[in-house]
Amino acid sequence: MTLDEVLQRGLTAAAEDYDVPAGAVDRVREQLAPMEMEKQTGRPSGPTWRLSGHKWMGIAAAVVMVLIAVPIAIGGNGGSEGGSGGGETAASSGVVPPASKSAVGGSTAVTDQQRRLAHGPVGAPLASPAPGAVTGGSTTAGGGGTAFDANVVAPPVPTAPNRVVKTGELDLQVGKGQVGATLNRLTALAAAEHGYIADSHTAEAGPAPSGQVTMRVPVQRFEDAVQQARTIAGTKVLGLQTSGEDVTSKYVDLQARIRALQATRSTYLTILSKATTIGETLSVQQRITDVQTQIEQLQGQLRVLGNASALSTLTVTVDQKQVAVATERPHEDNGFVKAVKLSVSRFVHGIEAIVGIIGPVFLVLLVVVLGWLAARFGYRASRRHLV
Amino acid sequence: VDDRDELDRWLADSYPTAFRTACLVLRSPADAEDAVQEAFLRVWRFRDAIPPGEGRRPWLYRVVVNACLSRVRSDRVWRERSADDALVNLPGQADPQHDVEDAVLSSCVASAVDRLPDHLRVPVVLRYFTGLAEREIATAIQRRPGTVKSRLSEARRRLADDPALAAWVELEVAR
């Protein structure tokens, strides 16, 4: 079975899930009756003076322009408020034109309740009043019907909440002994912004105390948190870097892939229930396991992305201001001074060398004396034995 | 079409297919009924413009598609469609009297087709459900046949990448 056959069979089956509403054709006929009456009574029919949605929008836009232009021309700045107000009104009426139904001959007589009753539950049997003649066959395109506009343009994008991953790095400098206090203030700030400290480390001992905290705050409060952090009393901002990445498309894509994989899993489960041999069963089970693994991986990515886009990350580094140590600038000496210094230096080095050599010499002398005494003692003792 | 009775019969006969075509485009029976009613009223109003012979069928779907796209462009339908998109059409939602395999297949295909953008979904529905030829689809959506051909090709490419549909094709071939 090729893709074409799968599509044909699947779409036909999907279409049959939609029950043709009972009495729908009669309701169309009811709508047609007034039109026929008009025609029979001689009133103009056909393309009467009815404005299309585009024309209504054009008129609305012209009215808005006039509403904006007139106050500006008369009162200068005073007209801006009225103009913008008019624009909003026109925009709302333009997006959802109220004349969309009336343009085809009056409002429809079918209420939502009637429709629901007519459609019934999804699983109800079909009630098609007449079989639709669905046959293929090519034909030359007819040329009539210029009254209809069939511009296939992209529909308006549905308003989905944007998902933006926001991160920032802030470098602060504080006075002596203020690192700990500043870090405490940052911790309190994270709590006040309904966030938390994800990471923190300090090095307050030593000549250059410093600390760093990583705050996670709700993405809606990111800018406020940055502003609060950079205006902490007693601090000086050395650097600030923020960035934002729109991950809405990634998020939506992950959701779509998960849905598709879930549909695939359902397919395999159905096929599994129809498997008749062990080989088929094992094969399908393996596929289900693979799909399930992919679903879990994507769900993990979705969670990570959701977390990253829900909570922004602000890393604040706090350093203590360093006291400038005055370094003595070496200056050039003249030749005589250099010679004296060199002489003194060499004298000192000579003394050092003499002192340094005394130790070994003394050690050698000590060994020699001890050896001589030992020899002398031994010689006398041997003479006493002989005598 | 001069004979009003014949036009009435033709529209009545065409209603089920037109309604289901609109359902596949809009994924909402209520909106589909409104769209088809609107389209049929237009057809009746401009019946003098209906081309004779075989040309009237694509002409009818041109009007139906226009009515559907008008509704797609409205915010109300988009809100409902966005809400529907959050749900996956699982087999359990299908007609229990259907063969279970057809129910699963219809769910997979409908979900995959629904993820296509409108300019690809409409030709696919007209081709594979309504059964229009490429030239008739060109009439229905007022585009050149070459454009229809490329859109159908692009739609097939995207649908072939859909894992659920790919699994179906693979398993059917394996059988």
Number of strands of chain B: 0
Q: Please give the alpha-carbon distance between the first and last residues of chain B.
A: 49 Å
- Span between N and C termini of chain A? 132 Å
Helix content of chain A: 55-70%
**How many extended strands of chain A?**
5
Sequence of strands across the biggest β-sheet of chain A: 2-3-5-1-4
Helix/strand-derived class of chain B? mainly alpha
List unreliable stretches of 5+ residues of chain B.
79-98
Largest interface: A-B, 95 and 114 residues
Please compute the radius of gyration of chain A using only Cα atoms. Answer: 46 Å
Could you tell me the strand content of chain B as a percent range?
under 5%
- Major β-sheet annotation of chain B: none
Number of helices of chain B: 9
Proportion in helices of chain B: over 70%
SSE topology string of chain B: HHHHHHHHH
Order of helices and strands of chain A: HHHHHEHEEHEHHEH
Question: Which of globular, elongated, flat, extended, rod-shaped describes the shape of chain B?
Answer: globular
Indicate the topology.
The complex is a heterodimer of chains A (387) and B (175).
Chain A: H1 3-16, H2 24-40, H3 53-75, H4 79-95, H5 112-119, E1 164-174, H6 179-192, E2 196-203, E3 210-218, H7 222-230, E4 235-246, H8 248-274, H9 278-310, E5 311-320, H10 335-386
Parallel strand pairs in A: 1-5
Antiparallel strand pairs in A: 1-4, 2-3, 3-5
Helix pairs in contact in A: 3-4, 8-9
Chain B: H1 4-26, H2 29-45, H3 56-73, H4 75-85, H5 100-114, H6 118-130, H7 134-141, H8 145-161, H9 163-174
Helix pairs in contact in B: 1-2, 1-3, 1-6, 2-3, 3-7, 6-8, 7-8
